[in-house]
Specification:
Organism (chains A, B): Mesorhizobium sangaii
GO molecular function (chains A, B): DNA binding
CATH topology of the largest domain in chain A: Arc Repressor Mutant, subunit A
GO biological process, one term (chains A, B): regulation of DNA-templated transcription
CATH architecture of the largest domain in chain A: Orthogonal Bundle
Shape of chain A: globular
CATH superfamily of the largest domain in chain A: Winged helix-like DNA-binding domain superfamily/Winged helix DNA-binding domain
Helix content of chain A: 40-55%
Strand order of the largest sheet of chain A: 1-3-2
Order of helices and strands of chain A: HHEHHEEH
Distance between the termini of chain A: 36 Å
Largest sheet of chain A: 3 strands, antiparallel
Keywords (chains A, B): DNA-binding, Transcription, Transcription regulation
Pfam family, one (chains A, B): HxlR
Oligomer: homodimer
Structural class of chain A: mainly alpha
DNA sequence: CCGGATCCCAAACGATACTG
DNA sequence: CAGTATCGTTTGGGATCCGG
C-alpha cells in the first residue's frame, strides 16, 4: 500500500501516512467495520436509495433487530449513513447513505459482485481441497 | 444485486442465481471470509509477490502465529492462495496468490486504499457524533 | 413502527508451550 | 522455519421481552 515492504509509513506530507499494515493505525478500524458482517449488505442496499428500518430488515435476510440497529448506529457514527426521524405515529425513521458512504459502497458492491460471479470456483476449490 | 427488491434470486440459467442478500446463499461465505480480519491484509501482501510464513508474520503487524496459519489454510482451501513446501532443512514454505485470489485482491486493495484516503473523514465524523 | 435492555451461547482471537 | 495443541478471554450475534 503506502510503503510496501516496510512496517511503518513514510511521511510524505504533514504527518505519518496511514498504513493498514501497521498494527495500531486507525485505518484498521475501517477494515474492522467490514468484519461487521452486515455492513456490506447495508451499504449495498442503502446505495440504492433510502430505507426504513423494518424495510431494511426484510430486505436483508437473516439479520436480527439488535444487530441491525447496532450496526446502523455504528455506521451513522462513522459518517457512512444518515438517519432522519419523522414524528409520525408510530414514528418513521429513514436511513440514507452519505456521500462518504457512497464512495465506500461503490468499492464494496464490487466485492459482492465478485462473490456472485466467482462463488462456483470457490466451492469447486473447496471440494477439491477436501478430497485429499 | 442480482434482483434488487426481491429476497430470492431468479433462475436465469440452470440453477438459482447467487444473491448475497439471500440468507443461505453460498456467496455469503465469501463475505464471511472478509470478516476474517486478516484475509484482507494477507491478500494485499501476497498480491505483491510470494511470501514465506514468518515473512508474512513480520509484515503483518499484530497477527498471532495461530491465526496466520489458520487463515492461510482457509484461504488455500478456498483456492485464493497456493502453498508450496521445499524440503530444505529447516523446511521452507512459500505462499503465493492464485489467479482467482488475484482478482479478489484487486477489489480488496481498493478498500484498503479507501481506508487510507478517507480515515480522517471517518474520525472527524466520529468525533462530531460523540460530541452530542 | 422503531428500537433499547437483558441473557446467553458459540465462535473468534490471543498467549503460551511444544513438535517435526 | 513452520507449524500444532491447549487454554482462557473476549467478542459477535441470536432470542426474547419490554418501552416510546
Amino acid at each position: 500500500m503506502s510503503t510496501p515492504g516496510t512496517t511503518e509509513g513514510t511521511v510524505p506530507s504533514g504527518h505519518a501516512s496511514p498504513n493498514v499494515f501497521c498494527e495500531h493505525c486507525p485505518t484498521r478500524l475501517v477494515l474492522d467495520r467490514l468484519s461487521d458482517k452486515w455492513v456490506v449488505l447495508i451499504l449495498a442496499r442503502l446505495s440504492e436509495g433510502p430505507r426504513r428500518f423494518n424495510q431494511l430488515r426484510r430486505e436483508i435476510e437473516g439479520v436480527a433487530q439488535k444487530m441491525l440497529s447496532q450496526t446502523l448506529k455504528k455506521m451513522e457514527r462513522d459518517g457512512l449513513i444518515g438517519r432522519q426521524a419523522f414524528a409520525t405515529v408510530p414514528v418513521t425513521v429513514e436511513y440514507s447513505i452519505t456521500p462518504l458512504g457512497l464512495t465506500l459502497a461503490s468499492k464494496v458492491v464490487e466485492i459482492a459482485h465478485w462473490a456472485e460471479e466467482n462463488i462456483e470456483q470457490v466451492l469447486a476449490a473447496q471440494a477439491s481441497y477436501d478430497a485429499n
